[in-house]
Amino acid sequence: DDRKFGRQFEAFFARDSGLLLAMREGLSGAEARWYKQKHNLPSPTWMTHYDDYREVGDVLLPHQWSRAASSTERQIPGSPGRPQRVTLHLNIAVNGAAPDTVAPELQ
């Protein structure tokens, strides 16, 4: 919970490995009130799923992130009627090393 900095989130970890699997995030109190007033809907939440962990240096980092908005956002007039999902495939380097130049395989 990061409310003292204005954001609320929940983190979900794998029991066996301790790796971060997902995060659920919401708007801060002031943002949520503005959103509800403007759209007359509850404020949205976002789920970000982390996958494809690979070792970079001595650290395991997720190379794929999928982020989806709650159904609340789809109820706004003029917004798409389908789920809003973004998937990022990342090439990561640390300590000044060049990132891998091979494009990630897309599924």
Structure description:
The protein is mostly beta strands and 107 residues long. Helices cover 14% and strands 38% of the residues. The chain contains 2 helices and 5 strands. A 5-stranded antiparallel β-sheet has the order 1-2-3-4-5. A hairpin with a 6-residue loop joins strand 1 (8-13) and strand 2 (20-26). It is elongated. The two termini are 33 Å apart. The model has no long low-confidence stretch (mean pLDDT 76).
Topology readout:
Elements: E1 8-13, E2 20-26, H1 29-39, E3 45-56, E4 59-69, H2 71-74, E5 85-89
Q: How confident is the prediction overall: mean pLDDT? A: 76
The total strand number stands at: 5
- Describe the largest sheet: 5 strands, antiparallel
Number of helices: 2
Assembly category: single chain
Q: What ranges have pLDDT less than 50 throughout 5 or more consecutive residues?
A: none
Proportion of helical residues: 10-25%
Strand order of the largest sheet: 1-2-3-4-5
Percent of residues in beta strands: 35-45%
- For the record, give the distance between the C-alpha atoms at the N and C termini, rounded to a whole number: 33 Å
- SSE order, one letter for each helix or strand: EEHEEHE
Cα gyration radius (Å): 17 Å
Shape: elongated
Tell me the structural class.
mainly beta
What keywords describe this structure?
5 strands, 2 helices, elongated, 107 residues, single chain, five-stranded antiparallel beta sheet, 14% helix, mainly beta
Short description:
The protein has about 110 residues and is mostly beta strands.
